[in-house]
Amino acid sequence: MLSRLFFLLLCSAALNTAAEPIVNTNFTYYSVDIKQAESAGEMSKILSKASPVSKDGKKVHGHTKWFVKWNFRWKKEGGVCWVTKVTSHVDLTYTMPKALTLPVNETLWLSYLSYYDALFRHEKGHADYAVNAAKSIESSLYAMTYEGNCKLFTNDLNAQAYMVLNTYKELSEQYDRITENGRTQGVFLN
User: Fold this and answer.
1) Is this prediction's pTM over 0.85?
2) For residues 5 and 2, what is the distance between their CA atoms, to the nearest angstrom?
3) Using CB atoms within 10 A of its CB, is residue 71 exposed (0-12), middle (13-18) or buried (19+)?
């Protein structure tokens, strides 16, 4: 009986480890008019004034809000509870500037476009942490088993998922510290 259970667990893990989270992506834009900007510093001030996002009391020009949720099903066989299905969902909302007009000066215009691309790449890095959190939650839950009361297993599964989620939230915050909020990735106006 135990070898059959082990085989079922192995098959279930093999079938389910390739599961991908369902990702829902939204954009929120704030409008900026930078046509009259005569310097990179002036563009930055216009962006900061228009931005609805602050971090640590300072205006930032882009932001990625993410939320990960999960559901699972388990089965009990031979006194052992094991996960039969995990689904995860990631909700992403990017907040980004939307230039109504671009600077007249071609150098500033190109600088803004380069800046915007770098800003969005940086924000997508935060989204990657959310998606990887969901994937890690799925794989870690599939790896768990429990002997005894399966209702207690549910508590353990959720505790594991929250532990994984919190780890990725910290990694996302660390990403900002390491990249100086994207500055080392080109998120600056010059």
Assistant:
1) yes
2) 5
3) exposed
